Amino acid sequence: MLQKNQSLMWFRRDLRLNDNPALNAAIKNGPVTAIYILDEESDYVRPLGGAQKVWLNHSLISLQKSLKKHGIPIILRRGKAEDILTKIVNESKASVFWNRCYDKGSIARDKKIKEALNAETFNGSLLNEPWEIKSNSTGEYYKVYTPYWKAMQAADAPPKPQPLQKDITPGCLNLDSDSLEEWKLLPTHPNWSDGITDSWQNFGETAAQKRLDDFLGEKVNDYKENRNRPDIKGTSLLSPHLHFGEISPRQVWHQTKAMQGNSLTKDAYTFLSELVWREFCYTVLFYNPDLATKNYQQKFDAFPWVKDDTALEKWQRGKTGFPIIDAAMRQLWHTGWMHNRCRMIVGSFLVKDLLIDWRYGEQWFWDTLVDADHANNTAGWQWVAGCGTDAAPYFRIFNPITQSEKFDPNGDYIRRWVPELTKLSDKYLHKPWEASDDEIKKAEVILGETYPKPIVNHKQRREQALEIFSNLSG
User: Fold this and answer.
1) Does residue 274 have an active-site annotation?
2) Is 381 known to be catalytic?
3) 263 vs 328, which has greater pLDDT?
4) Looking at the domain covering 298-473, what would its CATH class be?
């Protein structure tokens, strides 16, 4: 046990007060001061993307307010975490507390800090540690999701969430702090972040809890079906809150269980299975720390990717000529988020229609998603590319037209994000290039001018991709 002394609570991806084991331990240990370090200098630590910085700015404002209510001072510092913490601890003799992160850079940095300082670490981000759920037959981590999910259900229930420790003694460390404005996390010239703030409106722990309450109160009842419909608000929208730790997976798990009673509905079951997919991704990341840059399946190292900057930019900007692709990419740019079904569709299009390396897509998502997660983002891209653990078979190539017709049947999603096609009939909205001249004229669309023509022939590219993948697999 750490001696009773000044406590330094190092916030990272756990920007909440409730169910925060490191914060509770810090409070028990002694007078507590909080610190958040914007570390973009430590080796292998991946700097946040632009959209994440926007969310972080608002989340820190919320955290500051919450801590102030309990008298806990928070220090903001920018720089190399090891240097900042070492200097503070050497001067104050404080003990440091934090919740663990599981990416390569954080693990290497945190190990050095823990070896040098009086520190204690906790699991505040996952239902189970990556090393806790292993195969009974091999003793190794699960490399396929379904067996992992079954093992997770058979294991002991995750610890119940703990409320904020009472009897808080504010810290008295005399430390200088940056102002949040100094960090300039919000873009200015131009300010492209208005779409993110308008779309989400509320950030932080209270907003996360309300979003969970609202979802479990109504939306969860049709989750199994509606989660695939980008035209319907049928998902929890908790992913950025989980990413920044404004709510813990334990809170989500146990509140869902409590509201469902002894028997989960198929919708609640499906919802929890998605929460556990996040866990599975973190397990894979932990044992494969270079997952964001290296193919899980090495045979894909020989894949003949196409280098096409023009096509990549059209994909990024939502100008491919495929309405569902363009709608999704514009939603991403405007809101910092994209429906999961659409993430699979646009991912498949980049990799298997444009034959562009999945890592370009992963990097774009990293910069534009507010929930760009070390584990989920990477594992998702490797899945859709076919080179990951739970990889989609190489012959599974999403057809952007049939996917669009199936999951946006009335065209509401497309019309929301591709307004230039609003007047097209439902029949041709998903494939405007097949509309007659009269139909196109009535809809006030000029293909190639007001809306682009398809940048590839899907059927031809599908056949080309199948041949490449088949040879690779053989």
Assistant:
1) yes
2) yes
3) 328
4) mainly alpha
